[in-house]
## 1
Amino acid sequence: MTRILESYAQGRWQPAGPGAQQLKSAVDGSVVALIDAKDVDRKAMLEYGRAKAGPALRAMTFHQRAESLKALAKYLADFKQEFYALSYQTGATRSDTWIDVDGGISTLFVYSSKGRRELPNDRILIEGPSEAISRGGSFVGQHVCVPLEGVAVQINAFNFPCWGMLEKLAPAILAGMPVLVKPASSTAYLAEHMVRRIVDSGILPEGAVQLLCGSVGDLLDHLTCQDVLGFTGSASTAIKLRTHPVVLGNSVRLNAETDSLNCSLLGPDAVPGTPEFDLFIAEVFREMTSKAGQKCTAIRRALVPEQCMGAVQRALAEKLDGLRIGLPSSKEVDMGPLASLGQREEVLQRVAELARESEIVYQRKSLELVQADAQAGAFMSPVLLRVDDPHSGHPVHYVEAFGPVCSLLPYKDMSNAVALARMGGGSLAGSMCSADDQAVRQFVLGTAAMHGRLVLLNRHCASESTGHGSPLPHLVHGGPGRAGGGEEQGGIRAVMHHMQRTALQGSPDTLGLVCDRYLPGGARRLEPIHPFRKYFEQLQVGDALLSAEREVSLDDIEAFAALSGDTFYAHMDQEAAAANPFFDGRVAHGYFLVSVAAGLFVDPAPGPVLANYGLDNLRFNKPVYPGDRIKVAFTCKQKVNRETAEYGEVHWDVQITNQDDENVASYEVLTLVEKEDWVQV
Ligand code: NAP
């Protein structure tokens, strides 16, 4: 049955109007859906997102938003079968679908877990340590990041309607920004269904996700400096967005992920018979055929030592001969059709362009399909080309055939291979199959500046490798030049892309209060009760203890050396220690100072402090000699509430000074402190 796609705008579903565009099944050409958004008020959508969902998201902490992403991932997982059924219509096989649907859902899980581990349970992100910008320490600097107050407009490509949407949506929501998704029209029926489920779930605040099914229209005309524009698609569309007067005039943050003529290099050592040769063949074959080659990260240029060209050509042809093309939902099928007949037409034109200056060495004469009709669906044969003279300016370095198409390029030596790799003009992903780590280093040093990601494959990592073509939510997805010039997908940097970094300048106490942490130079609160006697809720940032002094003796150093086994000469040999440029004679072990400091600040009886789970930023700033007297300033620096645990994290600032008040060591002690009123929910 033909579906009439709806946009989700201003809290209601608005169907396509009359004259809507037909979206056809990639498999059999039947009409799957109608799409149109002529009557949708794009300006009002932006205003709604800013006014309704923005404040609601910003009222949540990073951890609360991260929990929502996890809940959403679990919820969507219950509807996978519905997504799969629609995905097959886009031409995706079962494994392509798994990458799109399951891969997209797992991206939500990854961002949720990164958000809880790497971001504070707060609404403001304190970035890095404070900066000492005055002689007396009364005026300091601190970078903070807060969510932008607009809408993240996300224009997506047709090839991964679920994953492509979720990889952008997750970091925006985690940052505290509502999103407006504009899926590519040809596969919008799958994205629409997933957004419908997201809205139905009620997990995110109303308006946190809006959907525009149809063309962008005048949407960009209403963007402000608080909105973010994320784009995935062709380089030519990216240029239109980049040069849009409002995008330019309002300095709208834009991240573009575009075309890419990615390369993979067969190392000079990887001759036939080596595991690396087999890996290379497997990778090139997979990148040609998975998602019918409609992957922005697919290998378009396979760089091969010239003496191996014949062997590579034969090995690939043999694998391609075994490829089963047909009905994507069938278990018997390895490759489905392209996303549409129009897309196939486009790819065939690009192949013809490439073939003018290269030789097609593999293409099936007739298409025998499994349970599918070659006339009705957008099926095509994989095409392997061979470019014997891949000189600079050859179309293979600038024509992208976005389908099951790859070209073989011979290289003479590593410097020639590096030069060819760079001719792609900036790529999302490159790879090298080699067991020669020196050659790999040459490849990386020569090509890293032209790539967002490099996959270095050999027999040792192959079994666990995620492969050339898989972007991961943990790692940068993007690339320089032709690839769009972006690196704002992948990891917490994708979250930061949706936040404003602001430099604060003021007194340590003022900035400490704003940032809810003790900053160096700030006032300490000294109370008769030891800080270790306070429960998590009772502790306040700035609660401190100034310890008594303790003299360090030569006997201490000897005893610590005997106990620890650390008899390094600087602690044990007066003459050798004095010859060292940093010391005047035997010095106390740094780890002894850390241990002694604990002896000075710890309150030993059982109490709310449950455990010490580490030290951060430990520095030994000045040597401590026998006879020196040390003391500790121990201050509650930061409290991190763990919503779901009976304890919270407390970070303590530790400063060890000597009898002359010179700092000899500084670090942060990390503890877990019990909550008094915690009730499990
Ligand atoms: P496209 O024409 O640039 O379309 C991409 C998106 O932009 C679609 O949502 C499209 O909407 C929208 N769009 C088209 N014209 C627009 C305009 N004037 N203003 C605003 N939005 C506009 O790309 P495509 O040909 O469909 O996609 C294939 C390309 O995407 C390939 O070149 C591939 O390399 C690239 N790609 C890159 C990545 C990556 O991560 N770097 C991932 C996937 C694909 P409609 O569909 O409604 O026209």
## 2
Amino acid sequence: MHLSPDQKAAFERDGYLFFPGHFSAAEIALLNAEVPALYARREACNVREKGSDAVRTNFAAHLVSAPFARLARHPRMVLPVQDLLGEPLYMHQFKINGKMAFEGDVWQWHQDFGTWTNDDLMPAPRAMNIAVYLDDVNEFNGPLMLIPGSHKLGVLEAGHDLKTTSYPLWTIDNALIARLVERAGGPGGFDAAGCYVPGGIVAPKGPAGSMLVFHSCLVHASTSNLSPWNRVSVYLSLCAVSNHIRRFKRPEYIAHRDFTPIECLPDDCLLRQSPVELPWAQGMPASALQTSLEELVATA
Ligand code: SIN
Ligand code: MN
């Protein structure tokens, strides 16, 4: 699956592309069936919400679960990103974010590249985020919010928030967010039929199986989930191989160190259960927890 010139132009302008219903219900059911066992693991790879047992984020499922390993090599996910970055890709990060019914906490306003460059010494924003929705995402269960066009501003000033949630994040302060939203179209408005027309914040909503591709400098956030519906989504971060990280300050299960280019499987790999390797199926190696402040010599 490749992108059209119009899609590439829309990405350049807005910093994201949305593909409603990109994966079928049967494909998503195979992924969803794996989540309870992954979330039940009492291991570092599961970060739970502050003061609750609900999983906020699970790391590296593509190394332990066959359906997620297939998703990580899926041409419907990888090829559009390869079109945008113009070179082979490796998996920088792989998360299954819970945002569970009643318990899912906020993700404050942030850019992902801020963390990747500050912590991992990723040289340039030549990496992309992809969200694949495992649940229907509606206006009530904490959809991801984006500020269109904010990717064009590069890395913005951020502070390291270690308190608000259970997960440390480089977050952007309210005054700057207000300016960015105003610049992107302000509060939006209502059309003649009374339907809301978005302005400087958009929140792509859609059925389970929808896919969102967004730039690593695009400013984004999500509110807490007070609804009775889970909002489980997979977040994959694909990085251009030549742009691989230069430091292993964060453990490998969070920021991966295997820069081998991803080779796509066939389009029906989820349903036909194509064979995949699962290097961490018997548990994470001790090396995955080791960290270092040493800077790597560039190899690409
Ligand atoms: C993220 O920004 O990494 C996650 C946001 C969300 O799950 O809503
Ligand atoms: Mn993010």
